[in-house]
Write the structure tokens for this entry.
Amino acid sequence: MNLDEAWRILQENQFKRTKNREAILQFFSINDRYLTALEVKNFMEDDNPGISFDTIYRNLSTFEELGILEETDLNGERHFRMQCNLGKHHHHFICTACGKTRSILHCPMEMIAVNLPDYEIEGHKFEIYGKCPACIPI
């Protein structure tokens, strides 16, 4: 997802272009990894010292609901990143040290669904956690 796509989606859903939304989206566009609300707050505090977590979480939730951001839970905390543009179903390896991701194009649900023949599967989430080569100590 790039910034133009994000603004198009927001405009289509009657969301105004605000200073806070611009800063949040800009931060995600320059960081290709999962980020916490605290990281967003720290980034925004220079230009907006009074920014609240409520404002940040409200915008992050809106962006996630509209498909601009994707969300995952790492160590009990919500993390967000820009939505992928791969155009096909995929999953991620997520580095627990730096938050960077790598796409996994194979979906294990193909094998799992075979073992659930009488069940109606409505969705799934599959993520692999660990350390990327740059974060593994030598």
About this structure: The first strand starts at residue 69 and ends at 74. The chain has a mean pLDDT of 90. The radius of gyration is 17 Å. The helical segments are 3-12, 19-30, 37-44, 53-65, 109-114.
